[in-house]
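Assemble and predict.
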Amino acid sequence: MSSQHPSIKENWFTELSDEHFPGQGFSLKVERILHHSRSDFQDVLVFESSKYGNVLVLDGIIQCAERDEFAYQEMIAHVPLFAHGNPKNVLVIGGGDGGVIREVVKHDCVEKVTLVEIDKTVIDLSRKFLPGMSCALDHPKVKINLCDGFQFLRDVAHAAIDEKYDVIITDSSDPEGPAEAFFQTEYFELLKAALNPSGIVIAQASENVWLNIDYLRRLMRIAHSVFQKADYCYTTVPTYTSGQLGLIICSDDCRLSITKPQRHPSKREQDALKYYNPEIHHASFILPTWAARLINDRNANE
Amino acid sequence: MSSQHPSIKENWFTELSDEHFPGQGFSLKVERILHHSRSDFQDVLVFESSKYGNVLVLDGIIQCAERDEFAYQEMIAHVPLFAHGNPKNVLVIGGGDGGVIREVVKHDCVEKVTLVEIDKTVIDLSRKFLPGMSCALDHPKVKINLCDGFQFLRDVAHAAIDEKYDVIITDSSDPEGPAEAFFQTEYFELLKAALNPSGIVIAQASENVWLNIDYLRRLMRIAHSVFQKADYCYTTVPTYTSGQLGLIICSDDCRLSITKPQRHPSKREQDALKYYNPEIHHASFILPTWAARLINDRNANE
């Protein structure tokens, strides 16, 4: 195998970022490179790893690995979907790999899922190299929109798209490149405008408490400035930096307790889940003392 | 800085193990090597990292980094100490860096702590390079025994040492090298023999659910074969493989609910803690569905 990617040396892929996680790196052994290209939006790499299955990398950052992807997809999908009493119409922004979609369609009550993905390359590569994730992209409940998620939400806000959602899941890449606008106040305001009254939104926070907790605090402050309720939870994913990823969940329904499920999975639904269960739903909101103090302190100066 | 250690290349330390976590690696940027030697028992490295403070490495495996060590020390110490109603006499096996000791002496009810460490080099280096961890090694409640933990427990079992313990904490290195015997049935039997009737023992499991869950199942089966109660919990530590480490906690007191604290920290005690709180005590026992099923399934064939 030749080393065709700048992040691969001597058959090891290494994720490094001087900007986002300086001084630490995570490596996976590469069996072979399956794809490398520059799409209209980002650098796209897919490789077969020795122990984590096929791995999708965008702009040098691991997006998903077949072995542990369920930990992320299940939590970002099922925490808001079970916190909601009866979600019918679901919007997924980003996530062209299809992993979140696969989880959403497991809910019998969900009638329609709209996937908004800017980069068709991600969908095409997932169909080819991540069949366990892309398997629900052709599900009859799923509609795919190839466009910018931000613009899509603007169209919803300006009634160019006449639809509101019960749950919106922002499964974006990190806040540089095409997903940069997904971490600003205007984006949260557009999310709010696209929600039904008891709707819930969840967004991957691109950070965790061990990395850039100041960034998480800012993001939580934005969320609190727009929504009545905002909470932070996390999921453990060994191929993500520091082994975990934060999720920010918001709602304007004050009666809603988003840290606990409103519905419990049926036996059939629970049998289809590998990570999520009602206990871990609640436990994922429990933080180490120092992190809880910083993230939940809305009056702190910076 | 010259690269004086086989795990350091171009100023990056990389933790690799074909045996224990093949196909993945974690790297920390090295500012300078502070110490490298071969003690009577193991290869010992201390380096200053760029973002995680000083780091202690034994036989190529990261033992602790100043920035995140509290996540491990607090959980392995306070989960059993708060699960116990009134711990007075505490034994710590391994942990010559002093981090666990520092946490144990925060409990006003604890009257005596015995530290059993086989490798004096670890204690000496911690005093020199990890002052925030070794700070309690000279605490008046602390007694240090420089000997093999296994032999120490045998002496207790054979009444050569006339003492029993309320809480025993096994803060060993991984099950190769000097700590190999700490992961076998006989060790758990010796732990049991050294406990007071309502005593609690906790041991670092050297693995986590994402790495070698079969090994954890075997370890849990050993624990269940010796103790009335055995449970698995974990703590998140970014410099440990896959970002988390498992802990196995056991007791012969059937009335005890070790997954919840019997005592709550006083305000003064809680103010001294950065990671542990009563909510995270319980949450640390909640596992993803697939892991809970495998770890708690005592009848599974292998």
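Chain B has a mean pLDDT of 93.
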